[in-house]
Write a structure and sequence with these properties.
- This protein has 481 residues and is α/β, with parallel strands linked by helices.
- The protein folds into 2 domains: 275 residues, Aldehyde Dehydrogenase, Chain A, domain 1 (3-Layer(aba) Sandwich), CATH 3.40.605; 188 residues, Aldehyde Dehydrogenase, Chain A, domain 2 (3-Layer(aba) Sandwich).
- Helix content is 39%, strand content 22%.
- The strands form 6 sheets. It has a 7-stranded mixed sheet with strand order 14-15-16-13-12-18-19, with helices on both faces. Strands 9-8-7-10-11-21 form a 6-stranded mixed sheet, with helices on both faces.
- Bound molecules: nicotinamide-adenine-dinucleotide.
Length: 481
C-alpha cells in the first residue's frame, strides 16, 4: 500500500489551522483497485460557516502584512511542496488513478505556479491618472477581494486547488476550499504544508464532504464570501451561477469543453498525430481541453484513422503505480457507465470501432483506448464531453464546413488546428470560438498564458496576469487638494 508511511495522508478537515473531525466519515477509493484508501471526515454546512468565519477573521491580518512577507510564505509553501513531491504525487495517483509520472508533473506544476504567482504579484499595481482639474488627484488601488470560496474537480485535484488558492492568497485574499469528494486528500496534504510554511491560520481552509450541495450552498449564500471560483462541469457551473445571484459575488467559472481537433490535408500528419495523442489521451482523456471531436479532411481521413489507431494500440492501460502505464482507470463506476453508453449509442447509429471499444477485461474501471470512425454530428458524442480515452473521428470536405463544425457547440474552451497554410491558420485563429487555441500544437498551457473558456465554458481566466486580476478589486480614488 503506497500510502502506509505517507506522513501527508490526513483524513480530517482543516479549519483555522486545525484538523477538524466529524462523526460522519466517507470513503475515498483508489479507482484502479476499487479499494478504500481512507475514511475522511464528512464536513457539512456548520463547518462551512465555521470555515468562512475563520477566513473572514484572518483577512484583516493577511491583507495587511507586507507583500514581501506574503511572497516569502508562498515561496516557503512551494518549497515544502517540492520537498514532499514523492508523497504528494503518490496521494494524487492513488486517489485519482492517473499514472504516477503524470501526478508528479501535476505537483511540479503546482510548485511552478506558486513561484510564478509570487514573482508577478509585484506587477499588480494601481494607476495615477490625469484629473479633470488641477485641484484634484485621481488614482486607483488594487485591493484583495476578500474571502474566496474554491470548488475543485477530481481530474486535476492538486493543480485546480493551487491555481485558485495560490492566486487568491498571494493577492491578500483568504480561502475556503471544497475539493471533489473523489479526491479530497491532496488538498488536505497541502493544508498541512501551508501551516508548516507559516501561512496564517484561517487563510487556507479545506472542507472535505461527500455531498457537495450543503457546503456549496453556504458559500453561495454567504455575504462574507466575496468570490466563488469553481472548476467543474457546465451544468453544476450554471447552478452555482444562479445560486450566487442573491449575493452578487464575483465568479470565476472554469467549465467543461468540447474541443475540435481539425486536421487539413496540407497538415504535417505526423505532427498532427503527435498532437492528437496528447490532446485525447493525456490524463486518460479525462481533461477539459481534451480533443472531443476530431475533424479530419476527407482526402486524408482513412490515412489519419489508420495511423492514429496504430499509435493508440501502443497505449498501456493499468495501475498508475506501474511505470509502463499510459492510461489509468475511469474515476468511478458512473463515469465508466456513461462512457460505455456513449460508445454503444454511437455504434448503434453507425459508428465503427477501429480499436478498443469496450471495458478492459478483468479490470473494473478501465476502458480500452478507443478510436471510432464514421462519426456523425447528429450523434450525442458530438455535443457532449466524452471525458475518457475515446477518440471520435468525423470528416469534412472544405474549410467552410470545418469551421462550421468546429464552432457548432455551446462550449468554447480549447480548439486545435493543423495545416501548413498560414493564411488559413490566421483565418481560423480569429474565427474559432474557443478561449485557447493550439495551432499546429497541442501544448496549450503555460504559467503566463491566460487560460479559460468562452461561450458556456466559463467566465474569467486562470494562469497569466489576468488570473491575479480576478482576485482583486480596483478602487478609484478622487482626492481634492
Ligand atoms: P463536477 O461539476 O461534477 O464537480 C466539480 C466540483 O463541484 C466538485 O467539487 C463537486 O463536488 C462539486 N459539485 C458537484 N455537484 C455540485 C452541486 N450540485 N452543487 C455544488 N457543487 C457541486 O465536475 P467533475 O466531474 O469533478 O470534473 C469534471 C468537469 O470539470 C468536466 O466537465 C471538465 O471539463 C471540467 N473541468 C474544467 C476545467 C477548466 O479549466 N475549464 C478543468 C478541469 C475540469
Amino acid at each position: 500500500m503506497p500510502l502506509e508511511n505517507n506522513n501527508l495522508l490526513v483524513t480530517n478537515g482543516w479549519i483555522n489551522g486545525q484538523e477538524i473531525t466529524a462523526k460522519r466519515l466517507f470513503s475515498v477509493v483508489d479507482p484502479a483497485t476499487c479499494r478504500e484508501i481512507a475514511k475522511v471526515s464528512d464536513l457539512g454546512a456548520k463547518h462551512a460557516l465555521a470555515a468562512i468565519d475563520a477566513a473572514t477573521d484572518a483577512l484583516g491580518a493577511w491583507r495587511t502584512i507586507t507583500r514581501d512577507e506574503r511572497k516569502r510564505l508562498i515561496l516557503k509553501w512551494a518549497a515544502l511542496i517540492e520537498q514532499n513531491i514523492q508523497n504528494l504525487s503518490e496521494i494524487v495517483s492513488l486517489e485519482n488513478g492517473k499514472p504516477l509520472r503524470e501526478a508528479t508533473g501535476e505537483i511540479n506544476q503546482c510548485v511552478a505556479l506558486l513561484r510564478w504567482f509570487a514573482q508577478v504579484s509585484e506587477n499588480l499595481v494601481g494607476e495615477t491618472l490625469v484629473a479633470p482639474n488641477p485641484s484634484q488627484r485621481n488614482y486607483t488601488i488594487k485591493q484583495p477581494i476578500g474571502v474566496v470560496a474554491c470548488i475543485t474537480p477530481w481530474n486535476f485535484p492538486a493543480a485546480a486547488v493551487i491555481v485558485k488558492a495560490g492566486a487568491a492568497i498571494i493577492t491578500g485574499c483568504t480561502t475556503v476550499v471544497k475539493p471533489s469528494e473523489e479526491t479530497p486528500l491532496i488538498a488536505l496534504a497541502f493544508a498541512q504544508l501551508s501551516k508548516q510554511a507559516g501561512i496564517l491560520d484561517g487563510v487556507f481552509n479545506v472542507l472535505p464532504c461527500k455531498d457537495p450541495v450543503d457546503v456549496s450552498q453556504e458559500f453561495c449564500r454567504s455575504e462574507d464570501v466575496r468570490m466563488l471560483s469553481f472548476t467543474g462541469s457546465i451544468p453544476v457551473g450554471k447552478e452555482l451561477y444562479a445560486a450566487c445571484s442573491g449575493t452578487v459575488k464575483r465568479l470565476a467559472l472554469e467549465l467543461g469543453g468540447n474541443a475540435p481537433f481539425v486536421v487539413f490535408d496540407d497538415a504535417h500528419i505526423e505532427d498532427a498525430l503527435d498532437g492528437a495523442m496528447g490532446a485525447r489521451f493525456y490524463n486518460g482523456g479525462q481533461i477539459c481541453v481534451g480533443a472531443n471531436r476530431f475533424l479530419i479532411q476527407q482526402s486524408i481521413y482513412q490515412e489519419f484513422a489508420e495511423k492514429f489507431a496504430a499509435r493508440v494500440k501502443t497505449l498501456k492501460v493499468g495501475n498508475g503505480f506501474d511505470e509502463n502505464t499510459n492510461i489509468g482507470p475511469m474515476i468511478n463506476p458512473s463515469a465508466l457507465k456513461r462512457l460505455k453508453s456513449l460508445v454503444k449509442t454511437a455504434v448503434s447509429k453507425g459508428a465503427e470501432v477501429i480499436i478498443g471499444g469496450s471495458q478492459d477485461k478483468d479490470r473494473t474501471l478501465f476502458f480500452q483506448p478507443t478510436v471510432l470512425t464514421e462519426m456523425s454530428p447528429k450523434m450525442d458524442a458530438f455535443h457532449i464531453e466524452i471525458f475518457g480515452p475515446v477518440a471520435c473521428l468525423y470528416s469534412f470536405k472544405n474549410e467552410a464546413e470545418a469551421l462550421h463544425l468546429a464552432n457548432a457547440t455551446s462550449a468554447g474552451l480549447a480548439a486545435y488546428v493543423y495545416s501548413s497554410n498560414q493564411e488559413r491558420l490566421a483565418r481560423f485563429s480569429e474565427s474559432l470560438e474557443a478561449g485557447v487555441l493550439g495551432i499546429n500544437s497541442a501544448n496549450i498551457f503555460a504559467n503566463d498564458l491566460p487560460f479559460g473558456g468562452i461561450k458556456q465554458s466559463g467566465l474569467g481566466r486562470e494562469h497569466g496576469m489576468q488570473c491575479l486580476e480576478e482576485y482583486v478589486e480596483t478602487k478609484s480614488i478622487c482626492m481634492g487638494l
